[in-house]
Amino acid sequence: MASVRSIFKILLCLLLAMVLASVGLYVYFGWKVEERFAGRLWSIPSYVFSDSLILYQGQKLDPDMLVKMLEMRLYRPAGRTFRAPGEYIVGRNRVEVWFREFSFPGKELPGGKVVFSFSKGTLEEIRSNDGKPYVYYELEPVELARLYGSERECRILVSLSSVPDYLKNAVIAVEDRRFYSHGGVDLVGILRALWVDIKAGRIVQGGSTITQQLVKNYFLEPERTIKRKLLEALIAVIIETKFTKDQILEMYLNEIYMGQRGGVAIHGMGEAARYYFGRNVEDLTLAEAATLAGMIKAPNYYNPHEHPERARLRRNTVLQIMFELGMISEEEFRKASAEPVSAFRIHQPVKRAPYFVDTVMEQLKELYPPKVLEKEGLVIYTSLLPEMEVQAEFSVRKVLQDLEKRKRAGEDQRTLQAVLVAVQPKTGAIRALVGGRDYATSTYNRVLYAKRQPGSAIKPFVYVTALHEGWTAASWLEDEPLSLSVGGRVWSPQNYDRRFRGRVMLRDALEQSLNVPTVRLAMTVGLDRVIDMLRRFGFKSSIEAYPSLALGAFEVTPLELAAAYTAFANEGDRPFLVSIKEVFDSEGNRQQRKHVEWSEVISPEEAFLITSILEGVVQRGTARGLKAMGIDFPCAGKTGTTSDYRDSWFVGYTTDLVVLAWIGYDDNKPTGLSGASGAMKIWAHFMKEISPFLNPQPFYPPNGVVGVEICEASGAAATPYCPSTRWDFFIRGTEPSISCPLHKPASELPLWER
């Protein structure tokens, strides 16, 4: 009897120990589960988006252009049997688009059908599906890059409410059909899978529930041991006691591995829907949902891009199971099974606009630590207009290739480099930025870091200094031989054609880019005053007070020069350049916002006078070749060529865009290209290609400017007797106060001049 009691006590103690151990394990792992799920569930990379694009009635646009915009945003032609968000149809002078909803922190754009009608190369009308007219329509931003951490995982988080029933049912049918009835571990499912495997003589089905798969992916190492399986089952049961079934399913749908995009792992159904089918998850069709559910078993093996037939057979297996379980009707099963696998292969680089994205990254690193950028799902909206960026990259490549084709055999066969940067002068928004001809071969961002001599492109800043000091466009400058002692040596500047014109007006000297009058002007105004003006325009480079600075004999970066020219196009105000517009966290809270800011550099009157002269550069001066290149809209600009043709520059602008182009060699060797024969060609090619996004207006004089007809021989107010006159602009109060003394009526002339 005593021995029975002893055994009973031992068993009771063992049972108590087991209960205590179980409670301890439950408490410990329950705490671990709560701790893990209380924090950030996933490492989510930051998204970098472009600016959105506004389309409006009357815009110069045709159906082909709109289709390219849609394809850039991962839209595709619609199928024959149905229409779904993310698709379009091109008809006669019209494009019908089924827009996806764009829903990211900080920006919401509605979906729905929109019809665009065209006539003679113009967007004539925009209407919704119910006939409602739109004056304009906003196209969604383009994803430029994601800033991955060491895990290199990409996912778009989805809520269960946005997941269509088709997809939820497909996943449950093929992965865990008793999901809503078991407690985390499905003994019935395990026995059924074991029986199927025994009959097949191989492993055909797994017994893991959705909850166990979540545990395996989220908590445990991928090792095949009994200990791991027991832990998997234990934690699955604990999770089931702490979360609802819908919460568990939502976590699973966001965590599950769904294949590879290059070196980046695709996780979750939101990312998979976008990558494989170009859709938001809520827009998936039954066939697409079944395809994704079928991929869970072996994502790369059933990849519909690489193995469409395998994917089709697996999809139909999923559809068959759904039909047998009563989740879909026979009609739905028949139609979905007959559909081809319509996976949408995305030819999307991991990083679009790479030089621009690098520029954005440099700024972000000053605002956030790397872990925040890589793991906390920030959403960064930038100033880039992707349509402009694509054309900028194309123009750089195309013109450089054309220039290099013209090289003769035996000539220097090195690779030319080029940059292009486009800035909105009213806001400072950088709309396009190309830091080299090919990012794959050189990531060096020449827009930001290349220090090059600007040559004649700096001359407008010398002339605006003179205007600021009271000179006018009709002031006279001497174009005679000049010798100066500089550093113990004699320096004699020459004009590009090595000719001297005697006496020239200030306007003509800048329009024709004459060196000698420019140096004389800088010396007369004062080199220190010129340097002060350059500083006001934002130049930070080292500038010595030598006469050659008037010809650009110092170094600047292309971005410095482009930023300075924005003041001419913006009535004398230089905006601070903007590449990042807004930053939001994953909860939609605004972290950063860049407001439009600027500094007043010169007066609107002075800015207009320089612009008027630079219009003359395009019409009559060193950039007059633009007309033959197809540039027929109001614009102003300045060529720049440095000694021995080492640098070729052109900076030109309209009322709504400043664009700088540069060509040169990285080792600073001569290119043989002037500003007009090199960089200006890139500028012209780019401006023609982006004409749908420009609305150039004439440059109108401000109230403080007056127009006066002057005599070209004297520069004074013209009389009826002056044989050659022209209109010119003056700041009010500086216009000629006397009439031309050279040309008078015969009665007033001396006898020997009659």
Give a description of the structure.
By secondary structure, the chain is α+β, with helices and mostly antiparallel strands. Among the domains are: 51-141, Penicillin-binding protein 1b domain (Penicillin-binding protein 1b fold); 152-338, Penicillin binding protein transpeptidase fold, CATH 1.10.3810; 453-556, DD-peptidase/beta-lactamase superfamily (Beta-lactamase, 3-Layer(aba) Sandwich); 705-753, no CATH class. The chain has 22 helices and 31 strands. The strands form ten sheets. The protein has a six-stranded mixed sheet, with helices on one face. The mean pLDDT is 88.
Instruction: Say which CATH homologous superfamily of the domain at 152-338 is assigned.
Output: Biosynthetic peptidoglycan transglycosylase-like
> What's the CATH C level of the domain at 152-338?
Mainly Alpha
Derived structural class: alpha+beta
Helix content: 25-40%
Main location: membrane
InterPro entries: Beta-lactam/transpept-like, Glyco_trans_51, Glycosyltr_51/Transpeptidase, Lysozyme-like_dom_sf, PBP_1b, PBP_transglycosylase, PCN-bd_Tpept, UB2H
Protein name: Penicillin-binding protein 1B
Keywords: Antibiotic resistance, Carboxypeptidase, Cell membrane, Cell shape, Cell wall biogenesis/degradation, Glycosyltransferase, Hydrolase, Membrane, Multifunctional enzyme, Peptidoglycan synthesis, Protease, Transferase, Transmembrane, Transmembrane helix
